[in-house]
Amino acid sequence: MRAIILSGGEGRRLRPLTYYFQKSMIPVGRRQLPLLYYIMANVAQHGIRDFLILVGYKSEQVMNYFGDGSKFGWRVSYVEDAEGYSGTGGALLNAIDQGILSTEEDVLIHYGDILTNINVSRMVELHRSRSADAVLALSRYYELPVGVAKVADGRVVELVEKPKIDINVTVGVLTLSRRALEVLRSLDRSSDVMKDLIPSMVRSGMGVYPYLLEDETWLDVGSTERYEKLNPEEVEAMFPFLKG
Predict the structure, then answer these.
(1) Are 7 and 22 in contact (CB under 8 A)?
(2) Where are the alpha helices (DSSP H) in 78-153?
(3) Which end of the chain has less neighbouring CB within 10 Å, N or C?
(4) CATH number at residue 226
(5) What is the per-residue burial (b if ≥16 Cβ within 10 Å, else e) of 119-132?
(6) What range does the domain containing 221 cover?
(7) 3-class DSSP state for residue 25?
(8) Contact 61/18 with Cβ under 8 angstroms?
(9) What's the structural domain count of the chain?
C-alpha cells in the first residue's frame, strides 16, 4: 500500500508562520525536524516506505528536503497542484488524471498538518480484513479549545474550562480502496475527501469502517494557537524509535 500525503495547502490558520514555511515543514520537537518528517517516519515504521506527496504552496521546501527519499530509505514522488483542481479531493483527482495515482490500488491518506503515532499496521490490517472501501481513524474524545458554561434560571451554575466531549473525531488519517478512488472520479474537481467523498460513500452503502485510536496520540498542528502549545518533549515521547 502506498501512502499519499496531503501537503499542498496554504496553511492560513498558521499565519504568519506559513508566510515563510509550507505548513507541513514547520519545525517541531526538540530537534526541530519538519512536521512532515515525523509523519512519514511513523508511516515508514510500519513498513510503508513508498510515498506520494501532493504539493502546491511552497512545494520547493518539501521537494528540496525529501528529494526522492533515498537518503531516508524511502521512495518519494510528487504531484504539484494544477489549475482547475482544488480541495483535498481535487488534489487526489489531479494525481489520478495525471496518471501518477492509479485507481487500481488501495492507498493510505495522511493529512500533512496532523502529528500522530497511529499504529498504521493495525489500521491497514483492519482495512484488509474487512475488505473495506475506507477506514477512518477516529479519536474517542475531543478537547474543546474554549470553556463551556451551563446556564439555568438566568445564572451560570457550572463552568468547565476546555472540557473533553465524548464524540468520535476524525484525525486526518484514512485508507481508501480502489472502488473509493473510482467514486472520487465522479465528483467535481473542487471536492473534499471528508466533506464530499466519504459522505457520498456512506450514503451509497459502501464499506466505511472506524479505526478507534487506543494508546495512540494525535495532535492537530494546523493553527498557530495549537502550534505554540506544542510541547517538544511530548513530541519526542511519541516517537521513541527515532534516535539521535
Answers:
(1) yes
(2) 87-97, 120-129
(3) C
(4) 3.90.550.10
(5) bbeebbeebeeeeb
(6) 2-238
(7) helix
(8) no
(9) 1
Q: What pLDDT digit, counting tens, does each position of 84-115 carry?
A: 888 889 899 899 888 888 888 899 999 988 88
How far apart are alpha carbons 14 and 232 in whole angstroms?
A: 18
Residue labelled with grid coordinates 518539501? 62
Residue among 226, 183, 190 nearest 207 (CA): 183
Contacts by 203-208, CB closer than 8 A, 24 or more apart = 206/133, 206/134, 206/179, 206/180, 207/130, 207/131, 207/132, 207/133, 207/134, 208/132, 208/133, 208/134, 208/135, 208/136
Kindly report, residue by residue over 193-235, the tens digit of the pLDDT. Answer: 999 999 999 999 999 999 999 888 888 777 787 788 788 888 8
pTM: 0.88
Would 244 be classed as within a structural domain?
Answer: no
Cell of 202: 456512506
Question: Residue 221: inside a domain, yes or no?
Answer: yes
Lookup result for grid cell 476524525: 170
Is the residue at 119 inside a domain?
A: yes
Q: For residues 69, 22, 29 and 223, what is the CA-based torsion angle, rounded to 10 degrees?
A: -140
Residues in a beta bridge with 77: 52
Sign, Cα dihedral of 128, 201, 96, 87: negative
Amino acid, single-letter form, for residue 164: K
